[in-house]
Design brief:
This is DUF58 domain-containing protein. InterPro entries: DUF58. This protein has a single domain, classed as von Willebrand factor, type A domain (Rossmann fold). It is built from nine helices and ten strands. It has helices at about 5-15, 65-70, 80-85, 110-125, 145-155, 185-200, 210-215, 240-265, 275-290; strands at about 50-55, 75-80, 85-90, 130-135, 140, 175-180, 200-210, 220-225, 230-235, 265-270. Strand 8 (about 220-225) and strand 9 (about 230-235) form a beta hairpin. Helix 1 (about 5-15) packs across helix 4 and helix 1 (about 5-15) packs across helix 5 (about 145-155). The protein is globular, with a radius of gyration of 20 Å.
């Protein structure tokens, strides 16, 4: 299946075209009747000064405040309220576990996650928001060129079986979207959400699962092997594992629900045999409700 940036962008734009542009209204509407005149210190859209922050890879030279930088050993960028308020950070799991599909008629979890993330980015950017990747890999920017940068970043798979959410260098009071199967160790997920919440970052978690991961339709002799082929388990009675597996999956979903609620995030599950439009519509509504 093609992961080329141009192909991914074309598919994501086709999905996004079925919805109106996502306007930056959930956090901002009440305090931003007129641009630049009703900025709020927490999440406004005005032109008033907000803060200095350390420069990151990808920052433009013209955004550096040389006077502030001269007073310290580091280089600092001067940010305004609207730059903070309209920033959305994405983390999309690109590890080997996401390259699973139980049937050739179904998309891989990773393909579906990329498509949903890109379609969401199209809506956000066309709604006037800045979109980037967590961890400082791609700082949030506006404009059509950023869509191609995102598609290029999403076109590279990671070799590890599972990936950990990245929450470094998140802008205070920005918003975020995490998309993964969330089947790996839960500790890094909790750490990332806690770190984000400490910086006033709220967002949404979308768990992408293959339908077989919900049904566990295995019977008799079965060899379970991770996509990265680093873990293998053979059993003669797969059916006897079903109840325990389903309970652990239910426990993981309950935990994701609880940790999301505790940190002010929203959580939902999407299955790859369902329409990508359904997940995109949920994200559209969920991002409107993130305050």
């Amino acid at each position: 299946m093609s992961h080329s940036p141009a192909h991914l962008r074309a598919r994501s734009e086709a999905e996004a075209a079925t919805l109106p542009p996502l306007l930056a209204k959930a956090e901002h509407l009440a305090g931003t009747v007129l641009l630049g005149e009703h900025g709020r210190r927490r999440a406004g859209m005005g032109d008033d000064f907000w803060q200095y922050r350390p420069a990151q890879p990808g920052d433009r030279r013209r955004s550096i405040d040389w006077r502030r930088s001269a007073r310290s050993d580091g280089t600092y960028v001067r940010e305004r309220e609207w730059q903070i308020a309209q920033s959305v950070m994405l983390w999309v799991d690109q590890a080997a576990s996401m390259r699973f599909a139980s049937d050739t008629a179904l998309p891989e979890k990773g393909d579906r996650a990329r498509l949903i993330a890109m379609a969401t980015a199209v809506l956000l950017i066309r709604g006037g928001e800045r979109v980037g990747l967590t961890g400082g890999v791609l700082p949030p920017r506006r404009g059509e060129p950023q869509l191609l940068r995102l598609a290029q970043a999403f076109s590279t798979d990671q070799p590890e079986d599972y990936a950990e959410p990245e929450a470094r260098l998140m802008l205070p009071h920005a918003r975020a979207i995490f998309i993964s199967d969330f089947l790996a160790d839960s500790a890094p997920v909790e750490a990332a959400l806690t770190k984000a919440a400490d910086r006033g970052v709220r967002g949404v978690i979308l768990q992408v699962l293959d339908p077989s991961e919900e049904a566990f339709p295995f019977r008799g002799r079965t060899i379970f092997e991770s996509v990265g082929k680093t873990v293998q388990h053979e059993t003669l009675k797969a059916g006897e594992l079903r109840a325990r597996y389903l309970q652990r999956l239910a426990d993981r979903k309950d935990w994701l629900t609880q940790v999301s609620r505790a940190t002010g995030w929203q959580y939902a599950v999407h299955h790859t045999d369902r329409s990508a439009h359904e997940a995109l519509l949920w994200l559209y509504r969920a991002m409107e409700g993130v305050r």
